[in-house]
Amino acid sequence: MEIAVLSGKGGTGKTTVVAALSSLAGRIIRVDCDVDAPNLYLFYQGKDIEKKNFYGGKKARINKTLCIKCEICEEVCKFGAIKNSSIDSFLCEGCGACTLVCPKNAIRLEDEKTADTFITKTEKGILSRAIMGVGSDGSGKLVTQLRKNAKRFVEETQITILDGSPGIGCSVIASITGADIALIVTEPTRSGLDDLKRILELSEHFDTQVMICINKYDINLDMTKQIEAYATKKGLFVAGKIPFDEKVMESVNSLKPITSFPDSIAGKAIETMWIRMKNLIINFN
Ligand code: SF4
Ligand code: SF4
User: Fold this and answer.
1) CATH classification at residue 67
2) How many Cα atoms are found within 13 Å in the side-chain-facing hemisphere of 103?
3) Residue 100 Cα to ligand 1 middle (Å)
4) Overall number of domains in the chain
5) Ligand 1 atom 1, closest CA
6) pLDDT tens, position by position, 95-146
7) Is residue 50 one of the residues assigned to a domain?
8) If exposure means fewest CB atoms within 10 Å of the residue's CB, which of 65, 80, 107, 176 is most exposed?
9) Is residue 7 part of a domain?
10) Same domain? 99 vs 210
């Protein structure tokens, strides 16, 4: 059972929800698919038991001994990556156009390491994560690899929680593909509702049960009602409504899940949401 926690954009409180659900769910598998801003490790530290290079891109390289400095490659590169028969690897997008025009076959594309992937053993189970190289972009391929790495440790009926990237890009698609449940975290603002609609459009392409979590629902009750009405119209389950709670900041600063603060109203609301989700998961199975 894979649960992907997603949001239409950053800053909706997705991390708070993921860290809390991860804690409530006990010994589960966690995958930090938010590869551009991974932070599950901060909440669930442990011992790295595996580290591997991830090659997610291609970069062009010029063989200087073959190059005759004709500069044809420079003219064809749309990314301005070639100057004076040298390639700036930060600008090279690996499109391969230069390799096609070089009269001396002096250019070739080479695999580029874009991240390190880790399997981390924590007190609460396995965490699959990555650290991107400087200047590298997060990619769907990397997310798919992290999910694949995690699958090796999944025992029967064990829950996997995927902390997805915000937005609707490739890495989000890779987070949601094949997941059983997508929990979309939103906030009660006009842009929150628009982002929710965009991510729902995306999820409609997948065979995934969608649930909604409205974070800080009480800061704008009118928008919360609009989101609920939209969910009802679409036949979607609002799994939880989390109130604004100043304790959340304390939880983020101390890197402890909000559910470990007994007097937190947000923590209580997430606990209630988890119970409702579990009931649905039982029926789902
Ligand atoms: S096209 Fe080939 S030979 Fe010409 S400058 Fe570029 S690398 Fe050198
Ligand atoms: S691979 Fe594409 S982006 Fe990179 S140097 Fe060649 S033409 Fe430019």
Assistant:
1) 3.30.70.20
2) 5
3) 11
4) 2
5) 102
6) 999 999 999 999 999 999 999 999 999 988 899 999 988 766 667 889 999 9
7) no
8) 65
9) yes
10) no
Instruction: Return the residue whose CA atom lies nearest to atom 2 of ligand 1.
Output: 102
Please list every protein residue whose CB sits less than 6 Å from any atom of ligand 1. 62, 67-73, 85, 102, 104, 106-107
Segment 26-70, tens digit of pLDDT:
888 999 998 888 888 888 889 999 999 999 889 999 999 999 999
Ligand 2 neighbour 94 (Cβ under 6 A): yes
199 lines ligand 2 (CB under 6 A): no
Same domain, 88 and 210: no
- Which range marks the domain in which residue 170 is found? 2-44+124-284
